[in-house]
UniProtKB/TrEMBL annotation, chain A:
Keywords: Cytoplasm, Developmental protein, Differentiation, Growth factor, Neurogenesis. It is found in: Cytoplasm. One of its GO terms (molecular function) is ciliary neurotrophic factor receptor binding. GO terms for cellular component: axon; cytoplasm; extracellular space. It comes from Eublepharis macularius. The lineage of its organism: Eukaryota, Metazoa, Chordata, Craniata, Vertebrata. Transmembrane segments: none annotated. This is Ciliary neurotrophic factor. InterPro entries: 4_helix_cytokine-like_core (IPR009079), Ciliary_neurotrophic_fac_CNTF (IPR000151). The gene is CNTF. Gene3D superfamilies: 1.20.1250.10.
């Protein structure tokens, strides 16, 4: 995406973008939660399965969450949603080709979440450019070269992806809200997402 | 004869409803002895040689039992008998009312055991054990700090209860988001709005236990009804800590409560303390003297009377 240079002063536009991103996050979270339930049922899984051994999925869990800088927050979010784009594409492909080949509605609901994740990544990138943070590089190759997996492993992986995506959507709202907090140096917040975030 | 009572005391536990046999220390089974219960002699029907046998014991059997050697009245053995029950499966609950700082777990036994119990709790997350800091009081509670946020890995909490008669345990596992439940809103106040016979202004505050309202805002749920009607009206508010009820029945006393929930996760708090208020009513014209303007805003705990020379609470301006 061409890094258009905008003056940091245009905060109403930031606020609007931030608010739209939050609303998208909330919508996505609701859709992902429903999709996760459907996914668990259609794959014959148990929602209490331990997914600790499934790797290669961006985890929302973080330790020093309150200390992260704006750039780190937005950067971590963006990298995560890029990764989810690839992972959801894989899931969709697996469902179409072998796991639920005839369940078109199910495929559509995955597609819908995928589109929302793509839009989210786009908006986060735009926000980073607007706030003059350097946009991280897209590292996709690592994921695409993954080894061939068994059916059950694919199912568990899909479940892990959706679980983490649901948690990321909560974390992202909190991250965006942190952007609106006055930084320790007392500088005025770049973005004020407060109103929308409260909806 | 003088009873010699120099003997260190033992403790023996017995299960409610069972039979109990108490031996007279190391005294021979066939020896002639006398047993007392709380210094009252027990008749021979309870004896089996020098052993004391108590049938289907109940709580009243708890007490001090002493065994004296027949002829010398020398105290041979003394025991404190405690009648109780093995612990049933404990009830364990974990909740975060100060997210994202941490959560506490509290527990109780569904029924008393009448004897001392000891509790041991272990908390695991991501296969690591986390410290559960015991509260000084209440005793049956401990606190866990969140080391990670937004984790999809479940927390697994196991509580084991042990006493002299047995042991039991329970395990729960839960997701970080699921146990978030704020405390109810505080300082709920409802006031009439002068010159507005159908309005009430309700204000409240965040629960003081909620640590970071900025980063983790709450949304609120208000319910209100006239005392004379059993049907609640509800309104959800995702912004701010005040609301104007605009459809109150004129002159009717209202009961109002508020609940809170994190904007993104978890469950609703319990309802706040109920407060009462009656919308403003026109003062009868014939009264010439200063009418005592009665405005009763009483919460269940406190009531106040508006002085007759009310400084008009210009809430109309406040409300706009």
């Amino acid at each position: 995406m061409a890094a258009a240079r905008r003056s940091p002063g245009s905060s109403p536009h930031h606020t609007d973008l931030c608010c739209r991103t939050v609303l998208l996050l909330r919508k996505m979270r609701a859709d992902v939660s429903r999709l996760l339930e459907a996914y668990v049922e259609k794959q014959g899984l148990d929602k209490n399965f331990s997914l600790d051994l499934v790797d290669g999925v961006p985890t929302a869990s973080t330790e020093q969450w309150s200390e992260a800088s704006d750039a780190e927050r937005l950067g971590d979010n963006l990298k995560a949603y890029w990764a989810f784009q690839t992972l959801l594409n894989e899931i969709l492909e697996e469902q179409r080709s072998s796991l639920t080949p005839n369940d078109l509605d199910f495929h559509e609901s995955i597609q819908s979440v995928l589109l929302q994740v793509s839009a989210l990544a786009y908006q986060l990138e735009e926000l980073m450019v607007m706030l003059e943070h350097s946009v991280p590089a897209k590292e996709l190759e690592g994921i695409r070269g993954a080894r061939e997996r068994g059916l059950f492993e694919k199912k568990l992986r899909g479940m892990k992806v959706l679980q983490e995506l649901a948690h990321w959507s909560v974390r992202s709202v909190r991250d965006l809200r942190q952007l609106s907090k006055p930084v320790q140096t007392g500088a005025i917040p770049h973005v004020s997402c407060c109103l929308a975030l409260k909806k | 004869a003088q009873r010699h009572s120099q003997q260190d005391s033992h403790t023996q536990y017995a299960q409610l409803g069972k039979d109990v046999t108490i031996q007279c220390g190391s005294v021979d089974r066939g020896a002639v002895v006398t047993w007392t219960a709380n210094n009252t002699d027990l008749d021979a029907s309870h004896l089996n040689g020098s052993w004391l046998v108590l049938r289907h014991v109940d709580l009243s059997h708890s007490g001090q039992y002493s065994c004296y050697e027949g002829s010398s009245w020398h105290l041979k053995y003394r025991v404190n008998l405690k009648v109780g029950t093995p612990p049933k499966e404990p009830v364990l609950m974990c909740r975060s009312n100060n997210y994202p700082n941490g959560f506490y777990c509290s527990w109780h036994l569904p029924s008393p055991t009448y004897i001392p119990d000891s509790f041991n709790i272990t908390v695991k997350h991501d296969s690591k054990e986390i410290v559960c800091e015991k509260d000084a009081s209440p005793k049956n509670r401990c606190y866990i700090r969140y080391l990670h946020l937004f984790s999809t890995k479940k927390y697994k909490v196991t509580l084991t209860v042990t006493n002299a008669l047995g042991r039991n345990s329970t395990t729960i596992s839960f997701d970080e988001f699921a146990i978030v439940k704020p405390d109810p809103p505080e300082n709920v106040v409802a006031k009439p709005i002068p010159n507005n016979p159908r309005r009430l202004l309700v204000t409240w505050q965040y629960p003081s236990t909620w640590p970071d309202p900025d980063s983790f805002p709450l949304k609120f749920f208000l319910r209100y009804r006239p005392l004379i009607i059993d049907y609640w009206q509800h309104v959800e508010l995702s912004d701010g800590t005040s609301h104007i009820i605009t459809d109150a029945y004129a002159g009717k006393e209202y009961i109002i409560q508020v609940a809170a929930k994190d904007n993104e996760i978890g469950t609703w708090s319990d309802w706040s303390v109920a407060v009462h208020a009656t919308p403003w009513t026109e003062e009868p014209k014939h009264l010439t003297t200063e009418a005592q303007g009665t405005e009763t805003t009483t919460s269940s705990t406190s009531a106040f009377v508006v002085p007759s020379t009310t400084k008009m609470y210009d809430s109309e301006r406040q409300a706009n």
